[in-house]
Structure prediction request, 155 residues.
Amino acid sequence: MADIAGLAASAAGGGIFGLIGSVIGRAAGLVERRQEQAQERARWEHEARMLDAQMRAKQQASEADLRLEDVAGGWRGLEASLAAEAAIGESYKWVQAVRGVMRPFLTLLLWLIIGMVFFGSGAAARGEIVETATFAATAATLWWFGDRGPRSDPR
Prediction:
């Protein structure tokens, strides 16, 4: 009988230890799964931050490309304007005289328009109108007369 009691105690003890081991294994599996999920979440957050940084970098690069293209377009326009000016050949003296007087006349006219707008408009309307007219007159003055300096003789 002692053998049967020992056998029963061994079976019960083995079952209890097996159950405890199974519970510990399940608990360890849950802890491990939570750690894996936390690691995955951290990886996804990192990937999201990296994608956001890449998008910002691409946006900045495209904005820089647009600014560069805008500046290059301005230089191409200046080049085309100067080439068109150079393509005009010799003509009658009076035509060349009128062409020579046209830039100073238009510049003086622009500055007169600024004066009339500045002194003729109310204080509320002055801001943007005068800024725009001043920009136009200054740009015209520098555009038309900026390249009129004495040319050095390459000889």
Remarks:
- The mean pLDDT is 78.
- The two ends are 130 Å apart (CA to CA).
- The helical segments are 2-87, 93-120, 123-145.
